[in-house]
Specification:
Layout lengths: L1 H7 L14 E7 L1 H4 L6 H4 L1 H12 L4 E7 L10 E2 L2 E2 L6 H9 L3 E4 L6 H4 L1 H4 L6 H14 L6 E7 L14 H16 L2 E4 L8 H4 L9 H16 L17 E7 L1 H4 L9 H12 L6 E5 L4 E4 L10 H14 L3 E7 L11 H4 L11 H9 L12 H10 L3 H4 L6 H5 L11 E5 L2 H4 L11 H16 L6 E4 L9 H14 L2 E3 L18 H12 L1
Helix pairs in contact: 1-8, 4-11, 8-9, 14-23, 21-22
Length: 523
C-alpha cells in the first residue's frame, strides 16, 4: 500500500494541458459509463454528452473516449460468473492506459456493493476496497503524462425496486471513496445530489441505469467538476498557526446568531459594547463557512458573527493566553442530520446491523427532508419547502449538506475542541401541542454527532444542554446527558444553571452560556 500511495501522490500537480494536440479525457467505469440501455449509446452516453459540452466551450481542445465496461467493479478477486469482475482485468483498462489520458474520470463502485458489506461483517479484510481501488488508479498515475484524477465519491442513486435501494452499503462506501480521493489528490464528484429531485424519473427503466436525460445530468455535473475552480483547502492563519487553539463552533440558530440580533434596548447595547470591546485585547480569528474566509475579529466587524462562539473565544483566549481560531459551521433551524455524513448515519456494528437504525432510514431514503417520510420533525419538513431557494437558509437543509459544505472541509485541521449548541429541531415533532420524539431517536442523534465531529481525536466535546423554555425538552436533555456519559463528552446543564427564557427559543444574553463552557473546561 505504501508503494501505491507514493506512486499516486504526484497526481496533485496542476494539469497543464497538451501543447501538441487535444487534451485526452478517459472515462473509465461500469455500465453507466458505457451507456447500457440507451437507444443511441454513441450520442447519449455521458462521455458522448461530455464531449459535446467541452466542444461547445472549448472547440477542438478535448477528446473524450468511453472506456466503460458493463458489470465491472473494483475488487480484483470478485467474480462475475466464470470471469473476474474487476475493471483492472478488462481490455478497456489496458486500452485506456495505452491511450495515455491526461484526465481520468472513474465511476466504479456500484457493482461492488454485494462484496463491500463483507468488509464489515468479516467476510473480507477491512480496507481491501481502498487497496484495490488505489491499485487501479496507480496504473494511470505511472503513465506519462501523469493524469488528473476525478472519481465519483458519491455514486448515482439506486432507486426503488433495485436490490440495494435503501441499503447502507453505498453510503458506507462513500467514506472509503472520500479517503481514496484524499490520498490520491483526486477531485471527488457528487453524483447523488444532482439526482435528488428527479431520480424516480431518470432511473425509471431498470432502477439503476439512467436514461438519456440522466446521462446528460452526469455529463453536466462532470463538466462542472472539470471546468470550475475547486474550493481551496482550509488552512490556519499563517501568523498564528503554530501557537493557537482551534475550536469548532457548530449548531443551529443559538450558535448562528450574532450579537447584532441582541443589540436593541439600551441595556443590550451597553452589554454588547462592553462584551465586544474585549476583542481589542485578545486575538480571535473567525472562519465563516458561508464565505470560506478568515477574519480577525474587532468590535466593529464581529456583530454578525456567532455571539455564542465569539463570547466563548474571548474568554478562552483570556484563559489560555493564546490566540483562538473559531471554525464556524451553523445555520438556523438545521437539524442534526444536516451535520452528519451519510456514512456515519449508516454505520454498522460488528454484527453488520446499523448502529443508528433511525438515522440509517433517514439517510437511505435519499430524498430532501420535506420528502423524507422517515424524518420525524414536522417543523423542519414544513420549513424546507417554504425556504427553498432562499440561499441564506435553504442551502443547509438537505441531509448531510452541512457536513459536505463545512464539516468535511475541516476534518484535517488540528482541532483543540468542539462546542456544539443544537437540538431544538431534534427534540420534538414541533406541532401543536409539542410532542417529544422517540427516546431512541433522540439518543441516536446525540451519539452520532459526537462520533462525527470528534472522530478518532481525543479532544473535548462540549454539548450545551437545551435551556429552559415552555416546551417538553426534558427527554431531549436526558438524551444529551446520556450520550455525553457514554462517550466522555462534556454536558453543560444550562437548565440547572437557570439559563433560558420560557417564552423565547433564543435567550438574548449569550454570556452566561459561554461562561459555563469555560468553567467546564477548567475542571
Amino acid at each position: 500500500m505504501k508503494r501505491i500511495i507514493a506512486a499516486i501522490a504526484i497526481v496533485g500537480l496542476a494539469f497543464a494541458g497538451n501543447a501538441y494536440g487535444k487534451t485526452r479525457v478517459a472515462c473509465i467505469g461500469d455500465s453507466i459509463t458505457y451507456g447500457f440501455g440507451l437507444s443511441d449509446r454513441e450520442r447519449e452516453s455521458y462521455p458522448a454528452q461530455l464531449q459535446k459540452l467541452l466542444d461547445e466551450r472549448f472547440p477542438g481542445k478535448y477528446e473524450v473516449r468511453n472506456f466503460g465496461n458493463s458489470g465491472r467493479g473494483i475488487y480484483l478477486d470478485s467474480m462475475r460468473g466464470s470471469e473476474k469482475r474487476g475493471f483492472r482485468h478488462m481490455p478497456e483498462h489496458k486500452a485506456a492506459l495505452e491511450w495515455k489520458p491526461e484526465i481520468v474520470i472513474c465511476n466504479l463502485g456500484i457493482n461492488d456493493n454485494g462484496e463491500y458489506i463483507k468488509e464489515y461483517s468479516g467476510g473480507r479484510q477491512r480496507g481491501q476496497f481502498v487497496h484495490d481501488y488505489m491499485t487501479l488508479l496507480a496504473d494511470y498515475v505511472k503513465q506519462s503524462p501523469r493524469p488528473k484524477l476525478y472519481i465519483w465519491t458519491k455514486l448515482a442513486p439506486l432507486t426503488e425496486g433495485q436490490k440495494f435501494h435503501r441499503s447502507p452499503e453505498p453510503f458506507l462506501m462513500q467514506a472509503d471513496l472520500e479517503e481514496i480521493a484524499h490520498r490520491t489528490h483526486a477531485t471527488g464528484i457528487d453524483m447523488q445530489e444532482p439526482f435528488r429531485n428527479c431520480m424516480d424519473e431518470v432511473f425509471a427503466r431498470d432502477k439503476i441505469h439512467p436514461n438519456a436525460e440522466g446521462a446528460k445530468i452526469i455529463a453536466e455535473t462532470t463538466f462542472k467538476a472539470l471546468t470550475e475552480p475547486l474550493e481551496p483547502p482550509v488552512v490556519l492563519p499563517q501568523d498564528i498557526a503554530d501557537k493557537c487553539e482551534v475550536w469548532l463552533c457548530a449548531g443551529q440558530s443559538n450558535m448562528q446568531q450574532g450579537w447584532g440580533s441582541y443589540n436593541r434596548t439600551p441595556e443590550e447595547k451597553e452589554r454588547v459594547a462592553k462584551e465586544l470591546a474585549q476583542l481589542n485585547s485578545v486575538d480571535v480569528r473567525f472562519w465563516d463557512v458561508n464565505d470560506g474566509s478568515w477574519k480577525k475579529l474587532t468590535p466593529q466587524n464581529s456583530l454578525e458573527k456567532s455571539a455564542n462562539g465569539v463570547s466563548f473565544a474571548i474568554r478562552r483566549a483570556q484563559q489560555v493566553k493564546k490566540p483562538i481560531c473559531i471554525l464556524y459551521v451553523a445555520s438556523g433551524g438545521a437539524p442534526t442530520e444536516t451535520f452528519l455524513s451519510e456514512q456515519v448515519m449508516c454505520a454498522v456494528g460488528p454484527d453488520g446491523k446499523p448502529k443508528y437504525p433511525n438515522l440509517c432510514k433517514i439517510a437511505t431514503n435519499r430524498h430532501q427532508i420535506d420528502r423524507n417520510d422517515d424524518f420525524p420533525c414536522a417543523w423542519c419538513k414544513r420549513e424546507f419547502p417554504r425556504r427553498k431557494g432562499k440561499a441564506a437558509e435553504a442551502a443547509w437543509w438537505p441531509v448531510s449538506l452541512m457536513y459536505d459544505r463545512g464539516i468535511k472541509r475541516l476534518r484535517n485541521l488540528p482541532l483543540t475542541g468542539i462546542y456544539w449548541y443544537q437540538g431544538e429541531s431534534n427534540a420534538t415533532t414541533n406541532v401543536a401541542p409539542d410532542v417529544p420524539l422517540a427516546d431512541d431517536y433522540m439518543l441516536e442523534t446525540n451519539l452520532a454527532i459526537i462520533e462525527q465531529l470528534r472522530g478518532n481525536r481525543n479532544i473535548p466535546f462540549v454539548m450545551m444542554g437545551l435551556p429552559k423554555m415552555n416546551r417538553p425538552w426534558d427527554p431531549y436533555r436526558a438524551a444529551q446527558k446520556k450520550a455525553c456519559e457514554q462517550t466522555g463528552a462534556i454536558y453543560i446543564d444550562s437548565l440547572a444553571a437557570g439559563l433560558g427564557d420560557p417564552h423565547d427559543v433564543h435567550p438574548r444574553n449569550k454570556i452566561p452560556f459561554a461562561e459555563l463552557v469555560i468553567k467546564a473546561l477548567s475542571k
